[in-house]
Amino acid sequence: MSLTKALRVVSSIMQKRPLLFNSMVYGFFYTSAEFIQQSFTKMSKTSCGYWLPVQFVNFLLIPPSFRVTYVSIAAFCWVNILCYLKNLPVSEHEQKIKY
Fold this sequence. Notes:
By secondary structure, the protein is an all-alpha fold. It is 84% helix and 0% strand. The model has no long low-confidence stretch (mean pLDDT 75). It has helices at 3-16, 18-61, 67-86, 92-96. The radius of gyration is 21 Å and the shape is extended. It holds the Pfam family Mpv17_PMP22.
């Protein structure tokens, strides 16, 4: 399917169901962009602070047969850390900063 044909199909879907399409697509992109703008540096610092030691221990101490299990457990812990950071209240100082 050519790009032109794909754009025509998307355009026709948008014209037939504008409320559904716009609320799903534009709402998703807006909230994602806003979240990334507010927390990118904090999340990237936390990510490096977590995954670098985890992978260092993984390749230094963990036998190859247990590495997948170790990284899976570490990934589960990382997802919980992300959930915790996502639900932290924003301080007044961070609210005043405009990017």
